[in-house]
Amino acid sequence: MIDFQDRVAIVTGAGGGLGRSHALLLAGRGASVVVNDLGGEVGGSGSSETPAQQVVDEIVAAGGSAVAEYSSVATPDGGDAIVAKALEEFGRVDIVVNNAGILRDKSFGKLEWPDLDAVIDVHLKGAFYVTRAAFAHMKEQNYGRVVVTSSNAGLFGNFGQTNYGAAKLGLVGFMNVLKIEGAKNNIKVNAIAPVAHTRMTEELLGPLAEMLQPEQVSPAVAYLCSEACELTGEIWSAAGGSVSRIFIGLTDGYFKPASDGPLTIEDVQDNLEVIRDPDGHIVPFSIQDELSKLGPKFG
Ligand code: NAI
Questions:
Q1: Distance in Å, CA 194 to ligand 1 centroid
Q2: Which of 56, 79, 256, 265 would you label with 102, given CA atoms 20 to 30 Å apart?
Q3: How confident is residue 299, by pLDDT bands cut at 50, 70 and 90?
Q4: Nearest-angstrom CA–CA distance, 176 and 190
């Protein structure tokens, strides 16, 4: 049985939806949880202490340990305050689940800059602020588990979500670098791309909604937060009890040796199939893997 005894977890945006479900599961398996939530609307306006407090009450009523925290993740001070709460209440921080999020969907031509800023600030910069405040403690204790919440909107694409998609794929870049910087201190950094019926997806999922409960996503997140998890830099899709890996691959591609002359535009055009053929692709862990694949081509 995987448990989180003596572990302290921060779950951002845990006042409802997926975050609430992650917090309840982690607390149910013994973690002390900082339930952070600003308590605003889906679009990010407003604030309320009620959602976070209600989740804390639920955890405590079930015999668990939790404290509410109401800061916005979208400022450096907010990130610091959330981590300070974990240290004050529980004395350490082992797990950060970056889950807080908002939506400001607009087709690209209609996007207004405040909609871009707000979405980048919460999803992408929010993960920087909260994770960095925790990272120093994780390094010192040689242990940490960080999960970022990406999205199929950024990984695969969806109409009307350039701001959101860019923020969500930005988190994958964040993960890819932090997994390397955290490696020697046993800090694992992974990403989840969930699909779940929450207020955010109220009108999007149609008849599938009923099958897509947040509780069917949280076990994948909790695994990535556990000591048992040796994986780092993975992106997992989790939806309705289905868990899959999403990855960024590099095809073997076309190669023209220097002895055959310089690469031309027509070489590219004539070899589209070879360039795009997924057979023999690799999933690089870092840029070293890409360079290692390139090296032998030069002989
Ligand atoms: P939700 O709206 O129920 O939960 C988001 C929570 O974040 C809310 O409780 C909100 O108050 C909180 N929040 C928003 N801005 C905040 C801020 N600045 N600081 C602290 N808390 C803040 O929506 P849901 O679906 O549970 O979303 C959770 C995460 O999963 C989000 O990052 C979302 O983008 C992501 N996601 C959800 C999908 C789904 O199918 N529900 C699909 C892909 C990604």
A1: 11
A2: 56
A3: confident
A4: 9
Position 290 scores a pLDDT of 93
Annotated active-site residue in 143, 164, 223, 254: 164
Vertex 147: Cα angle to 181 and 81 (nearest 5): 85
Alpha helices in the chain (DSSP H): 17-28, 50-61, 76-90, 113-119, 126-141, 152-155, 162-181, 218-224, 265-270, 272-276, 287-294
Domains of the chain: 8-246 (3.40.50.720), 258-298 (no CATH)
pLDDT 10s digits, 72-125: 999 999 999 999 999 999 999 999 999 999 999 999 999 999 999 999 999 999
Using CA positions, which residue lies closest to atom 18 of ligand 1? 72
Ligand 1 proximal residues by C-beta, below 6 Å: 12-13, 15-19, 36-40, 42, 44, 51, 72-74, 99-102, 122, 149, 151, 194-196, 198-201
